[in-house]
C-alpha cells in the first residue's frame, strides 16, 4: 500500500505547482494594498469565506507556516516509504499500513508541535550467538529513525571517507566481506607479502552499546549537525535526534521473552540495570548508525597516533584490528588507545581479550580465521550449521510446509554464503554428504553453493 497526499500548496497560492512557493516567487501574483485584507479556506469543504473586505482585486501573502508543515508532512511520507523497503510483508508493516494514511499526518503534527513521544517498544532476548537484549521500536518510531538517517547518512559517509573507509559496519557496499578483505590486504602490505616481520593486534570494547554515553553522543551529533547540515529543517532534525538519543525504551516496553531469561544476562549488558545516561537500544537503525559515528573518533585517534608508520587499521562496530611492523610502538599504542577510549568516549577496551601475535599466526575476526592468503570459518559457525542441517532433515522426514521450506532455503543460503567466502570447499562437501533423499524432495543445489526450492513447494508458485 502506498499512501499519497495530494498537493494543496499550488491550490492555495494559485500557482498550480508542488514546489515551495516562497513570497518572492508568489510576488508577481500578489498585491498587499491593505494588511487587513484576508480570506479563509475551510479545508473540509473547500469553501472560501470573505473576511475584511476581500471583495476586491487584492490578494494575500501565501501562508509560510502551512508551507513548512506541508513539506514536513511530505518528508514523513518519504521516510515511511523508505522504512517499508523490504519490510512490507512483515507483521508490523501489515498491521500499520491500513492506518498509515491517518496516523502519519498525526505523527507529522506531533513533530511540528514538538510533542512527539516514542511509543512503547517490544523487548525480547536472542540466544545466538550469545544472549543479547533487543528492543524493536514501533513502526511509527521507525519512520522517525529513517527520517533522521536520510539526513544524517550523507554526513556519516563523508566522515568515513575522510578517515579512509576503515569502518565497515552498516554501510552500503561495505560489510563483513570488505572488512576481512581489508585486514588481508593490510597483512600483505605491512609484511611485504610475509617477507618481513609484522604484528597484529585485535581489540574490542566492553559492552559497547550498553556503555555509550547519551550525553557525549548528543554533544557530538549536535556539533555535526550544526557544522555540516545545510537543510532548512535543521531545528526539526536537532529536536528528533535529541528525543531519540535520550529515549529510554526500557521504561515503557512490552516484554515478549520469558522474564527468567534476564537472570542469565550480565547486568552491564541490559538497559534495565545500567545508569540512565548510558546505553543505546540494540535493534534500532539509529543505534547502529550513531554507534558508527561515535566510534569514528577512535578511528581518527588511531590515524593520528600511527601517522608516519607502516600500519593497517580496520574496524567493524566495536571490533578492530591493527597491523604494524613496529612491535614496540604497537605495544605502547594499545595502552594509549585504551586511555583515549576511557577519557574521551567513556568506553573500556577489553583487558583480558587482547590478541597480539605475528601476522603469520592470523587473527580471528568477524567469524573468520583470517590469514594473509586464506581464511576459514570458525568452528562455532560450522557446528551451528550442522545442527541446523540435522533439524531441517528431521522436518523433511515429517513433511514440510511451503512456508517452512522458504525459511529453510534462506537459512541454508545464509550459511553457504558465509562458507563460500572462506576456503571451505571440504566443509561444504561434508555437509552435502549429510543431505538425504527426503531433503532433495524439497530442495535443489546449484553450483554447490546455492539452495533453491523445487517449484512444487514454492510459497510464491503460480497457480
Could you please describe the fold and organization of this structure?
- The protein is built from 14 helices and 14 strands.
- The protein is α+β, with helices and mostly antiparallel strands and 463 residues long.
- The strands form 5 sheets. The protein has a 4-stranded antiparallel sheet with strand order 7-8-5-9, sandwiched between helices. The protein has a 3-stranded mixed sheet with strand order 4-3-6, with no helix packed on it. Strands 10-11-12 form a 3-stranded antiparallel sheet.
- Strand 10 and strand 11 (368-370) form a beta hairpin.
- The radius of gyration is 28 Å and the shape is globular.
- It starts with 8 loop residues before the first helix and ends in a 10-residue tail after the last strand.
- Residues 1-39 and 51-55 have low confidence and may be disordered.
Describe the largest sheet.
Answer: 4 strands, antiparallel
- DSSP helical segment count: 14
Order of strands in the sheet with most strands? 7-8-5-9
Percent in helix = 40-55%
Residues in β-strands, percent: 5-15%
Gyration radius (Cα, Å) is: 28 Å
Mean pLDDT: 85
- N-to-C order of helices and strands: HHEEHHEEHHEHHEHEEHEEEEHHHHEE
What's the short story on this structure?
The chain is an alpha+beta fold and 463 residues long. The protein has helices at 9-13, 23-26, 64-84, 91-112, 139-162, 176-190, 214-228, 234-245, 285-305, 327-345, 379-398, 402-421, 425-434, 437-440, and strands spanning 38-41, 48-51, 121-126, 132-136, 199-204, 253-255, 311-316, 319-324, 355-358, 363-365, 368-370, 375-377, 443-446, 450-453.
Amino acid at each position: 500500500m502506498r499512501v499519497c497526499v495530494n498537493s494543496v500548496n499550488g491550490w492555495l497560492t494559485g500557482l498550480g505547482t508542488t514546489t515551495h512557493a516562497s513570497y518572492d516567487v508568489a510576488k508577481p501574483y500578489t498585491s498587499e494594498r491593505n494588511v487587513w485584507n484576508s480570506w479563509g479556506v475551510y479545508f473540509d469543504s473547500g469553501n472560501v469565506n470573505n473576511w475584511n473586505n476581500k471583495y476586491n482585486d487584492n490578494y494575500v501573502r501565501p501562508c509560510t507556516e502551512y508551507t513548512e508543515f506541508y513539506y514536513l508532512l511530505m518528508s514523513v511520507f518519504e521516510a515511511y516509504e523508505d522504512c517499508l523497503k523490504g519490510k512490507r510483508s512483515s507483521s508490523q508493516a501489515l498491521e500499520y499500513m491500513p492506518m498509515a494514511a491517518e496516523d502519519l499526518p498525526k505523527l507529522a503534527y506531533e513533530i511540528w508541535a514538538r510533542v512527539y513521544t516514542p511509543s512503547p517498544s517490544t523487548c525480547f532476548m536472542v540466544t545466538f550467538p550469545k544472549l543479547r537484549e533487543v528492543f524493536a521500536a514501533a513502526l511509527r518510531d521507525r519512520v522517525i529513525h529513517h527520517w533522521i538517517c536520510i539526513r544524517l547518512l550523507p554526513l556519516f559517509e563523508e566522515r568515513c571517507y575522510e578517515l579512509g573507509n576503515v569502518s565497515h559496519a552498516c554501510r552500503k557496499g561495505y560489510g563483513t566481506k570488505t572488512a576481512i578483505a581489508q585486514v588481508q590486504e593490510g597483512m600483505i602490505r605491512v609484511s611485504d607479502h610475509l617477507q618481513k616481520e609484522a604484528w597484529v593486534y585485535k581489540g574490542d570494547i566492553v559492552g559497547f552499546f550498553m556503555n555509550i554515553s547519551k550525553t557525549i553522543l548528543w554533544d557530538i551529533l549536535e556539533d555535526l549537525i550544526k557544522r555540516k547540515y545545510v537543510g532548512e529543517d535543521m531545528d526539526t532534525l536537532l529536536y528528533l535526534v535529541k528525543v531519540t538519543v535520550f529515549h529510554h525504551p526500557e521504561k515503557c516496553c512490552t516484554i515478549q521473552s520469558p522474564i527468567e531469561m534476564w537472570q542469565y544476562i550480565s547486568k552491564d549488558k541490559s538497559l534495565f540495570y545500567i545508569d540512565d545516561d548510558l546505553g543505546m537500544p540494540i535493534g534500532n537503525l539509529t543505534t547502529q548508525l550513531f554507534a558508527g559515528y561515535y566510534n569514528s573518533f577512535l578511528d581518527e585517534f588511531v590515524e593520528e597516533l600511527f601517522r608516519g608508520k607502516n600500519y593497517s587499521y580496520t574496524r567493524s562496530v566495536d571490533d578492530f584490528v591493527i597491523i604494524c611492523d613496529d612491535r614496540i610502538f604497537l605495544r605502547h599504542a594499545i595502552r594509549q588507545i585504551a586511555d583515549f577510549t576511557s577519557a574521551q568516549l567513556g568506553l573500556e577496551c577489553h583487558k583480558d581479550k587482547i590478541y597480539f601475535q605475528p601476522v603469520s599466526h592470523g587473527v580471528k575476526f568477524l567469524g573468520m580465521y583470517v590469514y594473509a592468503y586464506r581464511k576459514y570459518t570458525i568452528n562455532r559457525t560450522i557446528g551451528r550449521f550442522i545442527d541446523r542441517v540435522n533439524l531441517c532433515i528431521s522436518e523433511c522426514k515429517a513433511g514440510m510446509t511451503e512456508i517452512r521450506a522458504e525459511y529453510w532455503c534462506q537459512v541454508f543460503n545464509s550459511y553457504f554464503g558465509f562458507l563460500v567466502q572462506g576456503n571451505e570447499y571440504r566443509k561444504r562437501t561434508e555437509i552435502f554428504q549429510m543431505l538425504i533423499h527426503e531433503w532433495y524432495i524439497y530442495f535443489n543445489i546449484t553450483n554447490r553453493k546455492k539452495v533453491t526450492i523445487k517449484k512444487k513447494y514454492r510459497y510464491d508458485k503460480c497457480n
